[in-house]
Amino acid sequence: MNRFCRPHRHLVENIYSATSEQTAQLCVDYIEQAIGKCELFFIEVPLEQYVEVVRAVERHEIACQSIIRQGAFTYNQVRHVAEAGNIHHLHINDEGRIYFTDEDISMSTAIAFAQSKWNGAERYEAVENSVYTGLMIIGEPFAQEVVGAETSLKNEASQSQLKKLITTTKQKTLTVKNSCLYVNNCIKTGAFISDMLTPEKIDCLVKEQLSPVQLFKTTAKTATSMLGGLIGILIGVSVGLFILNVSTAVMTIIGGIMGLISGSRLASTISRKILAWFIPAETLRMLKIFKQQLNVSSEEFLLSKLELKQAMHDFSTLHDLRAQFQRMASSANAEELAKQLIESELTRIVRLRMYLQVPVNHEMYEVLETLSTTKKKGAVA
Q: Which one of 72, 210, 317, 338 has the largest count of C-beta atoms within 10 Å of its C-beta?
């Protein structure tokens, strides 16, 4: 029985399995079936599995570096998208294999398009991002496949048009590749996505929205109010006693009001120390674990800025995080409990994303045609 969803009839076969061992075996099977049946093909594998997959396939004495290409997204990133079910024809089976049915598009090209749309891009801009991703991963053959599928090759005029597009696109492809962001020589996930949340931006937002003061603001306000009032009274009494010719009682009241203002300012500068008194150190340690896991999960779920803000709002309003942190502190695996809570919330959020149809060949052709005739400013946003 053929282990693939359909016979080879397109440029890229997406092989996204849960482990690099499974992906490598499927690659070997596919290459053995496909060699000799077509002139050119590529296999796209998850970003983080690429090195191990290539090594495993080469042990079968198959030269595969020119065939197997590193995707722009990790397996888990694509898995979460597939499980949410908001891309047409994208599926995941019981064994964890992620695949398209009735679509001849690479996984990275499709996910780059979808992430752009979920980040608020117009469709044409999202298609542009998907085309850039295709050029980055596959290169010139990607452009050839798109143009060839759009153009009839039965007459010389069409052949001439194809050659012109490919020639002018080839240099632009190099420009696109040179403009990409790389991390340890690996493709940086979502390099072309407009308004993409980088790990640094995620960390900054999480620290801002899930600080101890934000999460425990009721406790913090009570504590600072109590201390501010106390400081205010003490300062006020001292000021009142040094003003002459007015009754001590009146000036103590006036001084107390002045002191409350000064005390409030002083209290705001030491709110963190107050929180240390009112919030157990173990709870703060659980908050740190929670934030670290939220950073990881936000990247795995490819959250947009709005989605991340919504998640943090929901965590602070819909969940009793102090109670959750107490559970984490008393468990044998605090990290796993944090992951379960976070992924449950993020799964709910990503299922609300707009349902998308992936770009058709004609849309990508229009982008390539524009790319081959106009100079893109900076090539990559």
A: 72
